[in-house]
Every structure is written in C-alpha cells, then in structure tokens.
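Quick start: read one record
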Amino acid sequence: MRVLGLDFGEKTIGTAISDPFGWTAQGLEIIRRKEENNLVASIARIKELCAQYNVELIVLGFPKNMNNTEGPRAEKTQKFKARLEKELKLPVELWDERLSTVGAERVLLEADISRAKRKKVIDKQAAVLILQGWLDLNANKTIF
C-alpha cells in the first residue's frame, strides 16, 4: 500500500510518497498556488499523484500550536481534509506536524544546502518528515 504525505501550507503543498512496503518516505514535489483559497489545480495534481502511485491513504500534516490548541491554520487544514476525502474518495489521516518545518530545516542545514535551495525544498522535506513519522508509528500494524 502506498501512502501520500502532504504538508499543507498557505501557498504550497509539500508532497511525499511511501515506498510500496511502507518503510520509507521520499519527497515528490511542491505544489504551488497563487491564491491561498483556490485549491482546484492543487487537488487535481494530488489526484494525479494518487493515480500515478496507486495511493490508498493520505497523511495530512495537522498544524497544532505548541500548547496543543488548534488555530486558524488547523481549521483550514480540516476543511482541506474534508475536501480531499470528498473529491479523491480516499481516507485522509491527520498527523501532528508540530516542528516538522523546524526538523526539515535542520536536515537541510546538516546536508549543507544553501539558503536559496532550502527555501525551494523545505515544504517537500517537511512532507517527508510528516509521512515518515506516520510510517514509523504504524510500522508494526498490519496496514500493509
């Protein structure tokens, strides 16, 4: 079973895909949009990725505040989740993404990636961390 990981931001959606065995997450691409609330093209691209990789489940990063409360970004993410489920007819699981961007930044810094290049790939790396965290938690469950 292939799982798609998404890091849903204001202007971008980072994407990652699991290997067929559900062991590792690899970055795919960053979906960019000009208008925050116009998701038509973004959902169409996600649908294409799901078909291309035979995705059976989507893991969507859920941006909780550090004190475990939910803010406006979390509300938008929940609406995006509902829309994905309705339009793609796939289950979507929310995954606590606190510090995923910080972790992604750290990984890219350790790899000695320039600031300009980090800015271009940070959302994709955050999607990898979101998906890998979910895969690691579910490694011993019989989902695959």
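The mean pLDDT is 85.
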